[in-house]
Q: What sequence folds into this?
């Protein structure tokens, strides 16, 4: 199929962009043929204490496995994101903050950010935090979240940000896995007029795992209980420290942060990113993909608890001397015009969000958008899941008034930053396609056996060579890192995504091919939801699959077998949903619970998820090969019970 729904690069964009078509093609060749020289040159965009001479030191082979970039270089991430901008931009806004209610806003200039970060860094030091220590951050979308991350980077501590929507159990698991000494939290967050009990959640988590110190930032000034000797009010400690703190020189391969993400099996993995390669990648991609210039107002709507927030709310824009907008609220509060009102209020120039948010806003019709000006906008972006062409066209025509390019950016927590995306000055757009790999990103489509597929085709997406922003390991479990990403197709990184390549060579990501579901652009492992369900005393067994959902992209569909004698009531159904929310967090709440007298299994006892997916999708007439089922009657019962 040739997709000719093309939106060509405009002459103005080709003329003004950092990278036009010729430059893109030349960079692709240079990155492939002379990678050392190419990346050494590009990496000069960072401020190095010791510039690297060893550029790329990588092998994906089992016996010789290593991923190292700029390995003899030294730098500090916080210096690059803050200090180096002070001579020219001390009074430029670094962070603009928009609160939950429209009358709440504020922010920090670069000189203020510097002072705040130094103070926080000195408080952390006074509490005994040292280079290499882990610090858990559980905060709302307020400037203090960026300050906390940068303060860790300044002194060489490794941060682990936990999304404010995760439950106490999820916090506890993450604290335990990385051995955090300290947690930074706030009294409460605010979202859509509701209070989020952050400190209370931390207290509940700390009933299961211990930390030495909890640092509490006052945000709503709620009265929260403080445990003596463990909990400290940041506002008080901050008074007693200097606003000057030197930056710790870090090796390029020293860890910068751990961020937990769901996989197809087991507990969430601690994805480790390091100092030099990660910062380079987010800075370079932020400039190229968004065609960014210092001082432009950039709004990425992601929470800092996800990688998108790390890379394109905090590190990318600040490394590029940007003005980054942090929004604590939600798109439909107090009205469904809020997003566009915020764009007008802060004169946002580049807006980056998830397709799920666009679909939800699209439902409200065009009027809430048209009631606003949006004249400041010059580029739009999407991330997190495939965008359906209908939502793409709405974004283009209604939000962008057919004048703004849209960059559909494909990447993952593991990749650190964008890998596949149009460049606004170089790439013709196609609704629904992430189009082309960035220079240095070598994609392949392979079949299930690893055979390389050429031309226009579909297959599993793999990457045959490293890029600087690649994750380095799974915290505490290098074997799991290798097994998860490098064992399916030896010598190649397996993304977990399926993908189509069209006649023009453009890529169309079709979604996960493993047991991961993408709910509203957030990754959820089916195994995690199943583990939560079977913890419920009435549940004997559970199997979870994704199904197409109009707004969320994918919803969570849970097949549940109850213990003998337990009655399947509506009250129990509600209780199971509540239980999963409490175990993991609201994002994991099942959309459908299907009472299953039994689950379809092979004779060796393996659950046949393929069949469960078909039934969840409503494709009960096309279940495929069922000949290996131990008991075909189980499937008939499930089909009959679909309601
Ligand atoms: C998975 C990664 C990238 C940061 C946010 C999510 C899906 C991401 C796109 C896109 C189609 C996309 C993939 C990927 N995904 N961006 N533009 N088009 N699919 O990060 O939680 O690590 O999830 O999100 O399936 O593997 P994540």
A:
């Amino acid at each position: 199929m040739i997709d000719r729904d093309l939106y060509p690069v405009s002459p103005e964009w080709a003329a003004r962009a950092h990278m036009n078509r010729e430059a893109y093609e030349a960079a692709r060749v240079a990155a492939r043929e002379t990678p050392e020289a190419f990346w050494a040159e590009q990496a000069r965009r960072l401020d190095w204490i010791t510039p690297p001479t060893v550029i790329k030191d990588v092998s994906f082979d089992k016996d010789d496995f290593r991923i190292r970039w700029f390995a003899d270089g030294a730098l500090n991430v916080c210096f690059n994101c803050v200090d180096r901008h002070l001579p020219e931009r001390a009074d430029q806004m670094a962070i603009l903050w928009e609160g939950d209610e429209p009358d709440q806003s504020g922010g920090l200039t670069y000189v203020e950010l510097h002072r705040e970060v130094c103070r926080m860094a000195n408080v952390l030091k006074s509490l005994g935090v040292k280079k290499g220590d882990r610090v858990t951050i559980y905060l709302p979308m307020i400037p203090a979240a960026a300050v906390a991350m940068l303060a860790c980077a300044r002194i060489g501590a490794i941060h682990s940000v936990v999304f404010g929507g995760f439950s106490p159990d999820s916090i506890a698991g993450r604290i335990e896995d990385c051995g955090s000494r300290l947690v930074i939290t706030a009294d409460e967050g605010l979202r859509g007029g509701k209070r989020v009990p952050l400190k209370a959640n931390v207290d509940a988590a700390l009933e299961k795992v211990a930390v030495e110190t909890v640092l509490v930032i006052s945000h709503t000034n709620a009265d929260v209980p403080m445990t003596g000797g463990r909990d400290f009010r940041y506002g008080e400690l901050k008074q007693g420290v200097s606003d000057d703190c030197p930056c710790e020189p870090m090796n390029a391969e020293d860890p910068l942060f751990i961020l937990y993400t769901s996989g197809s099996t087991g507990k969430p993995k601690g994805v480790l990113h390091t100092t030099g390669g990660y910062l380079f990648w987010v800075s370079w991609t932020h400039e190229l993909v968004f065609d960014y210039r210092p001082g432009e107002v950039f709004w990425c709507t992601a929470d800092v608890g996800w990688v998108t927030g790390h890379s394109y709310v905090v590190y990318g824009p600040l490394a590029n001397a940007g003005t980054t907008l942090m929004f604590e609220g939600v798109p439909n509060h107090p009205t469904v015009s809020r997003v566009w009102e915020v764009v007008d209020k802060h004169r946002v120039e580049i807006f980056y969000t998830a397709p799920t948010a666009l679909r939800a806003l699209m439902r409200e019709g065009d009027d809430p958008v048209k009631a606003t000006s949006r004249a400041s906008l010059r580029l739009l972006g999407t991330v997190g899941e495939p965008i359906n062409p209908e939502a793409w066209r709405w974004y283009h025509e209604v939000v962008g008034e057919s004048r703004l390019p849209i960059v559909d950016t494909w990447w993952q927590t593991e990749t650190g930053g964008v890998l596949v995306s149009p460049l606004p000055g170089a790439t013709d757009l196609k609704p629904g396609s992430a189009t082309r790999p960035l220079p240095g990103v070598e994609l392949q489509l392979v079949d299930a056996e690893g055979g390389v597929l050429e031309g226009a085709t579909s297959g599993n997406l793999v990457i045959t060579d490293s890029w600087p922003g690649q994750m380095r390991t799974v915290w505490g479990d290098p074997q799991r890192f290798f097994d998860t990403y490098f064992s399916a197709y030896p010598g190649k990184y397996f993304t977990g995504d399926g993908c189509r390549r069209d006649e023009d060579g453009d890529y169309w990501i079709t979604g996960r091919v493993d047991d991961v579901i993408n709910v509203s652009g957030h990754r959820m492992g089916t195994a995690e939801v199943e583990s939560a369900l079977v913890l419920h005393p009435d549940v004997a067994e559970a199997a979870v699959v994704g199904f197409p959902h109009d707004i969320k992209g994918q919803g969570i569909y849970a097949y549940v077998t109850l213990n003998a004698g337990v009655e399947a009531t509506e009250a129990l159904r509600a209780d199971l949903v509540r239980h999963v929310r409490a175990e993991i967090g609201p994002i994991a709440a099942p959309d459908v619970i299907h009472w299953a007298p039994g689950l379809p299994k092979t004779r060796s006892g393996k659950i046949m998820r393929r069949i469960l997916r078909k039934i969840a999708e409503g494709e009960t007439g096309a279940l495929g090969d069922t000949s290996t089922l131990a008991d075909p009657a189980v499937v008939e019962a499930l089909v009959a019970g679909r309601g």
